[in-house]
Amino acid sequence: MTIQINIKDDNVIFLPGDEIEGVVLWELPQSPARLVVNVYWFTDGSVSDIVQGFELNSVDAAGTLPFKFSLPATPYSYSGKLFSISWEIEAYSVSPDERCACPFIMSPYDTAGELRSRDPIYTLQSYPDYHCPVVDF
Amino acid sequence: MATQLNIKDDRNISGMTELAPSSKPTLSLLVIAFCALLWNSVFITQYKYQWYINDRESAIILLGFFIAGNAALLIAFCYFLVFYYIGQPRLKISNRCPRLGEKVALAWELPDYRSINRLAITLEGFESMENLYEEKFPKNVIASIKLADTADKRDIKSGTAEFKIPGNSMHSFTAGRFQIIWQLKLYAEKEWKDRRLEYIIEVQPHEV
User: Fold this and answer.
1) What is the pTM of this model?
2) B205, A16: Cβ pair inside 8 Å?
3) Given the DSSP bridges, would you call strands A98-106 and A13-14 parallel, antiparallel or unpaired?
């Protein structure tokens, strides 16, 4: 009984304007009333903004759904002393209520703080300390 | 952050956008003026009463308080004139919405340069946050670049500098109680009252 998000190539670091592509997989005890997939950013104080997303009203109890979103130019992922800005892609179902969220980084900088190009793809292997949890809520 | 001091001799500041200071002392001046008027109204009433009952000594003492109230009004008025009309520094910038990593030209003119002993201009980026009661946390500076620091009257009077917005930093950002602010800070060391002005600029992200 889960919802899972698989991002293409296990990429977790994106440039502003990049496309984020992947698949949502779900296996639920019954057909959900709705299935929603969103890309959004949020701050510590729960200020958030859904950048893109879609909603399906009649889906099977189990299935897969590819997605492709274009990321905007701002805001960059940010981690400061007073607050941080984080990005996530989430998928959730309504009746039954299940949710899965996968955080990612949207930044033009590499780990050294230098501007980076589109290659290579930054995978989980490139960032061993980074965890993209597949969690049921 | 590396300090860049690059004051140029070119005094031409045409073709640039003038910045307006983000904080003005209007409220302080209004409060001072209101208090002074209130002060005066109290003491002028008392003065008239003492004069009416022929207590000339008390009346003369009260007249002193009335004069002090008028002096406060006059100082507030003079400060208002100096801030808004006579001594207002003029800061001009080649692009008021520069991108991260972009070079920007800055020019300044200080009409009251004769009374200024030292001028310092700094580019500062900081994060700011308010709690739920709208109380501000102490700001956290993420970048600070000194653009000018001079005691030379000629450079204080007018000058230009060129600087680069840090290319590996965060763009301007506002969401609810959270902000990333970039500003130019002007500090003029004067004989009797230093002047501190802040000019907010909007730093854009890198081009996608």
Assistant:
1) 0.76
2) yes
3) parallel
- Chain A residues in contact with B128 by the CB 8 A cut-off are 82
The dihedrals phi and psi of B55, each to the nearest 5 degrees, come to -95, 80
In chain B, the residue whose alpha carbon lies closest to the alpha carbon of A79 is B170
CATH of domain B7-22+90-201: 2.60.40
- Say how far apart CA B25 and CA B99 lie, in whole Å: 30
Residue of B nearest to A14 (CA): B208
Give the H or E element holding residue B81.
helix B56-81
Q: For the segment B57-100, what is each residue's pLDDT rounded down to a tens digit?
A: 888 888 888 888 888 888 878 777 766 666 788 899 999 899 99
Mark yes or no for CB contact A76/B140 under 8 Å: no
Sign of CA dihedral A49, A53, A59, A61: negative
Q: What CATH number should be reported for the domain holding residue A98? A: 2.60.40.640
Distance from CA of A59 to the nearest CA of B (A): 35
Q: Do strands A62-70 and A19-27 pair parallel, antiparallel, or not at all (unpaired)?
A: antiparallel
Contact state of B171 with A74 under an 8 Å Cβ cutoff: yes
